Amino acid sequence: MRSEPTDFVQSVSRALRVLEQVAQAERPLPVKVIARRCGLNLSTAYHLVRTLCYEGYLIRQVDGTYALGSRLAERFHELVGSFQRPPSAATVLRHLAAVGGHTAYLARIAGDRMVVVEVVEGPHSPWLEDLQVGLETAAHATALGKSLLTTLPRRALRRILSAQGLRRFTRDTPTEVAAVEAELRQLRPGDVVIERGQFRENVACASVVTPADDPVGWWAVGVSTRGMDLPDQLLTHLRGAAADLGRPGRT
């Protein structure tokens, strides 16, 4: 668990809780519901909602309920645009998805998070809602995350696993740090990391890391497939994509 900073600003935290509750709701929410879900008194909730509306992060509907505003979409596009990518990333991923028909992913470590920075969908892979651009990957349960974890010293590895938590996605998901460490001890940066059924039932994924310029450190390129079979040819294409990604001058 992360410790609360000494200069923690409660009003900022409350405003973010309001945004999270509105974002997670299936329909726009009235202020009374927002206040109850966020554990706020009604007066505070009104002040926060009005401020967020003024700044464009919420909008007030004609019936008095509140939904997300366009400013959030703008911030998301700015976030995606801020991700550093190899110059050849889009070309390499499109080629990888085309030759095998499987979805191709690019991920990196950002702070203590594993973040997906590029995705090219393929028809032979399922759509994985948690592996989309701008989202954190589950480092302990995905091939992308595990391949990146192989590049870290033990202290950094444990810090990241502690910060993200070891959520159980399937019955095969490792939920103990020791189990993840034991698996990673068998691997080295650049090995093909394979995960079967740990992130989604009846889905297999593979990933390889390739060095990148600082401050990124490493890129992970991966693929997913329906079922547990990862054909040798697909893994060959994956290795080739990782090599192309780290090759300077390719566009």
UniProtKB/TrEMBL annotation:
Ligase is among the record's keywords: no
Pfam families for this protein: HTH_IclR, IclR_C
GO MF: DNA binding; DNA-binding transcription factor activity
PROSITE patterns: HTH_ICLR, ICLR_ED
Keyword Magnesium set for record: no
Residues covered by the HTH iclR-type domain: 9-70
Domain IclR-ED: start-end pairs: 71-251
GO biological process, one term: glycerol metabolic process
Keyword line: DNA-binding, Glycerol metabolism, Transcription, Transcription regulation
PANTHER family with a match to the protein in the record: HELIX-TURN-HELIX TRANSCRIPTIONAL REGULATOR, ICLR FAMILY, HTH-TYPE TRANSCRIPTIONAL REPRESSOR ALLR
Function: May be an activator protein for the gylABX operon.
Protein name in UniProt: Glycerol operon regulatory protein
